[in-house]
Amino acid sequence: MTRFKTFNPYFVGFDRLFNDMETFAGIDKPYPPHNLVKKDVDGSEYALELAVAGFKEEDISVEVKDGTLIIEGKGSSDEYTYLHKGISTKNFRREFKLSEKMVVESAEMVNGLLVISMYEEIPEEKKSRKIEIGASKPSFLKGA
């Protein structure tokens, strides 16, 4: 494992080289585990997937506050006596810093995953545009 990686999973929309602070500081793996997926080729659409098997929709809240995506889960009390409990339903709180351009669009539960869809909103002046090439000479060359 390297001390550097090309993407820090806590910064959504910042694609630059970050130091792997979790490993360096000896911090345990965060709960619940998550994936950050680039959904399109140009890199403006993302999905954040959190493994939340055992949680119901009403047990989870998703909020954006001050540029931070906050996800909280309230574990339910166990109705059973387990001989082995390998699927955790403990309370959790995860925070992900969003870039200024990132817009959280929706959240849904799919097969035990909480899937949060978001996209990078590119200002009009930053979007690429096609410039048509005219047949006439530009006005500054007419005297030549």
From TrEMBL:
Annotated protein name in UniProt: Hsp20 family protein
Xref: Pfam families: HSP20
Ranges for domain SHSP: 25-136
Family, similarity comment: Belongs to the small heat shock protein (HSP20) family.
PANTHER family, per database record: PTHR47062, SMALL HEAT SHOCK PROTEIN IBPA
PROSITE patterns recorded: SHSP (PS01031)
